[in-house]
Specification:
Shape of chain B: globular
Helix content of chain B: 25-40%
Strand content of chain B: 5-15%
Number of strands of chain B: 7
Largest sheet of chain B: 7 strands, mixed
Oligomer: heterodimer
Number of helices of chain B: 8
Mean pLDDT of chain A: 83
Number of strands of chain A: 0
Radius of gyration of chain A: 25 Å
Shape of chain A: elongated
Amino acid sequence: MLIKIQIIVGLLSLILLLITFELIRKKRLREEYAILWLFTGIVVLMLSLWPEFFLSQFFARITGIFYLSAIVVIAFLFLLLIVLHFSVVISKLTNQNKELAQRYGLLELEINELKRHYLPPRRL
Amino acid sequence: MTIEKKILVIIPAYNEEGSVGKVIEDVRTDLLQADILVVSDGSTDCTSEKARAREATVLELPFNLGIGGAMQAGYQYACQRGYDIAIQVDADGQHDPKEIAKLLRALEEKKIDVALGSRFIGHSEYKSSTMRRIGISIFSQVISMIVGQKITDPTSGFRAANRKAIRLFAHNYPQDYPEPEALVLLHQCCLKIGEVPVGMSERYSGESSITKIRSVYYMVKVLLAIFVDCFKKPPLLREEGERC
């Protein structure tokens, strides 16, 4: 049973790593997120390679939860944090976007006014 | 009035080509000394052209920001150009420009920072669906409780703001449901609000942004937003002379 889970988790982490590499190569991922996902992939890969060491021995002794449930709990908390982080980032970007649009509109209006005052009317 | 005040009428418009021209003309006939700014919130029709044809200043946003973002851009313009009073009028024609004088008088006489045009004080001929009436009365009670004074029409977008309020709004303006939320913001910043009875007519064209089916959902969302606003840190009031 454990070996099956190990293989599945190992494959998933390899796929995650491959996708991350591809995205980095195509420059579609910012560095900070590239590092985050590479780190995530490597941690998951290690978990699948030596589950006893990482979880049964080390982690279970501290927390008292078993291998599978431990993985689920950790993964869930981790993803929760990432999603929260992204919500913060999106909120900030939305706000910056709004401010840019407003500044753009005001500047455009000002430029048009200046043109009308200081440039001779364009002949067609 | 000893010194003539600089007055700006802000008309936020999103695809309102059918009514914006008429609104501009009405405002101009009733308020000769005011400048008119139409904020075209990423309109895809001829709203800006129609407004320019009637010699209103047009502030065109590159894409749709929603009424909050558009209004804030208008207040930023008013702040930068040093207007003393900014008046908010809807582009769909449901606000009667003849009533602007009442708002201005209230601003002057009652020593308030924002005058709010209310459909529900005094002679009310305004007709709307029962659903909407119930919704507005719930809002009214909640807002009145938070603000600590009677507000009968918190969703009214017919307002006049003085210099102090213009500066506040230029820097901080609620984005999601700006009409009721702005009142909470004003209260947090200790600005004075006053209500003035005005008559409102049916809109010339276009649909209300609130349809019947969505009205309950809308109400819950607005109440939540107001609730969240109560916990927000009030922004610092900027001094005159700071960048707008």
